[in-house]
Input
Amino acid sequence: MVYPPDFESKIGFDRIRELTGDLCLGETGREKVRGGGFSTDHNLISLMLDQTAEFQHILVFDDEFPVDHFFDMQATLVKMRIEGAYPELSELFDLKRSLSAQKAVFNFVRNRNRDRGLYPRLEEITSKLSVFPFVFESIERILAKDGSMKDTASKELDEIRGEIRKLTASVSRKLQAVLKKSQAEGIVEAGAVLSVRNGRAVIPLNVYDKNRISGLIHDQSASGKTVYIEPAEVVAMNNQLVELENSELREMVKILTRFADSVRPYIGDLLTNYDIIGEIDFIRARALLGN
Output
């Protein structure tokens, strides 16, 4: 039977598609919603109804389905296919959490199907998920629990950060000494505290006293009454600190690039995983709408 082009809108199917897409967690799931259409294929309809019914059972009778961190990392993975490309730190953190989510989904369905045979249709999908211990463990060696890069991500990074901590402490001690001396001499107000301007620790003082402390002026207050000076005693140290911080960034890029190089052979399989999670997301949205 041939259906007119506006058949879906006439029966309200386009509205159902829109509502289903709104319930998806990620873009891949929404793409699958948009790619779906009216069908008269009995086998396909039966399969999709079975999948939806199984997920509705989860929503009503089972433990909470693991949907945290359903991040779609396909764009990041495609970028990493290019030689020399690397993920941003935030992307690596999202990749780690999404891999954990995929493993949780795999275990959730497998364990319940193995024990009680509850979700055979869903397991047909989730059983295709691959587990990547090498990738996950590589990320674990790089990232701390909060998503920052560990000092131990490389020997060089650990050494650079150690130097940064030592030099930062030295700068702080020197600044405090200059501040206290200036306060004792009446150059700086007794209640004044160190501030930061342009990434540099500075001392605030009255504009009329600006020539009484040798150093670089980094800023001036809106009223023009206060200037912020980086004392000459710490200028060279701060310059060295900037160089160390630049070295830290370069080393972090090297670490991320090495990671990308090591996982590049697995990117095709990783992308397949995200497509599978998108399918689960689509089924979940149908179940939510049906409930």
Summary: DSSP finds eleven helices and four strands in the chain. The beta strands are 195-197, 200-206, 215-220, 226-231. The first strand starts at residue 195 and ends at 197. Residues 156-252 form a domain with the MutS, DNA mismatch repair protein; Chain A, domain 3 fold (CATH 1.10.1420.10).
